[in-house]
């Protein structure tokens, strides 16, 4: 079985080429992908070759962990899914020994364990690609003792975080320094940090992934306050100790979402507490992936780029 997939051959070298898929096992499903979105965080690190080394990281690789498609075939041991089911796919590793699936979702077709995919409402269409980011934000919000009062960054991750804080009863302020991303708030304030005098935030949520901001954020904490490190940082994190000592600052790292987080985001969208509208700004045919990746990484007006795989056979 063949597929067409996006391959990072090396850092800053992309192709869309045919790959041979692994034969599905009894516990696998075959999914035809309709949309996959581009992560401007971790995928950018892979693209630029700045991803910190961890087991399994090597090129060439198929990126993508925010894909949506339809189950076309199920293994003999799969009972929870049927052909025709719309699913969210958080990645796949099905391309044989020469091309790694890291994270493997940017492909017209994937073979993936049935236990990894999650059934979704088909009416969500391309907006379902946002569920992984929403679930990551929800996972980070759940780990603390207080909801964040300040969110750093008004990209799509910061916006989803702000919406979830509102859904959970909070009232966030968001810092953004790029004029192109100041708009689009849904009932919360977006400020340049220079225009915000507060220095008593009990919880600050960093959605920027910029480790250089840490000292400035410590100065804005209330005593005993917490900074949630929810981005993925490619450089070592350090901070000046005396201000953090005086504030008795606490730092918390949030990792990736769990299936329960994603299921809860689906439920919150279904009952109207979480809107996924207005966040996808660009949709590109998958065969024009090179242009799409450049826009996703370099154009500040591009909040979220989605690849449309329906144009590929």
UniProtKB/TrEMBL annotation:
This is Chlorophyll synthesis pathway protein BchC. Pfam families: ADH_N. InterPro entries: ADH-like_N, BchC, GroES-like_sf, NAD(P)-bd_dom_sf. It comes from the Bacteria. Residues 27-120 form the Alcohol dehydrogenase-like N-terminal domain. GO terms for molecular function: bacteriochlorophyllide-a dehydrogenase activity. It comes from Pseudogemmatithrix spongiicola. The keyword DNA-binding does not apply. The lineage of its organism: Bacteria, Pseudomonadati, Gemmatimonadota, Gemmatimonadia, Gemmatimonadales.
């Amino acid at each position: 079985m063949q597929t067409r997939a996006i391959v990072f051959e090396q850092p800053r070298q992309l192709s869309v080429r045919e790959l041979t898929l692994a034969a599905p096992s009894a516990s696998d499903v075959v999914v035809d992908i309709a949309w996959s979105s581009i992560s401007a965080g971790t995928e950018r690190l892979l693209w630029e070759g700045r991803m910190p080394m961890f087991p399994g990281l090597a090129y060439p690789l198929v990126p993508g962990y925010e894909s949506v498609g339809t189950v076309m075939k199920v293994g003999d041991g799969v009972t929870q899914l049927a052909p025709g089911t719309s699913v969210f796919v958080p990645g796949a590793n099905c391309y044989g020994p020469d091309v790694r699936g890291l994270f493997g979702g940017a492909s017209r077709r994937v073979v993936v364990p049935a236990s990894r995919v999650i059934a979704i409402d088909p009416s969500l269409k391309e907006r379902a690609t946002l569920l992984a980011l929403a679930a990551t934000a929800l996972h980070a919000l759940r780990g603390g003792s207080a909801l964040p009062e300040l969110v750093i960054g008004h990209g799509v991750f910061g916006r989803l975080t702000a919406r979830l804080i509102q859904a959970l009863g909070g009232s966030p302020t968001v810092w953004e320094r790029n004029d192109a991303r100041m708009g689009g708030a849904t009932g919360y304030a977006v400020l340049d940090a220079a225009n915000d005098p507060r220095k008593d935030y009990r919880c600050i949520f960093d959605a920027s992934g910029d480790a250089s901001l840490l000292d400035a954020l410590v100065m804005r904490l209330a005593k005993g306050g917490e900074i949630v490190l929810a981005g993925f940082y490619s450089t070592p994190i350090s901070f000046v100790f005396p201000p953090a000592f005086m504030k008795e600052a606490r730092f918390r790292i949030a990792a990736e979402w769990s299936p329960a987080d994603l299921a809860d985001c689906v439920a919150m969208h279904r009952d109207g507490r979480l809107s996924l509208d207005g966040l996808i700004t660009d949709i590109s045919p998958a065969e024009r992936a090179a242009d799409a990746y450049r826009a996703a990484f370099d154009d500040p007006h591009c909040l979220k780029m989605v690849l449309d795989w329906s144009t590929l056979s």
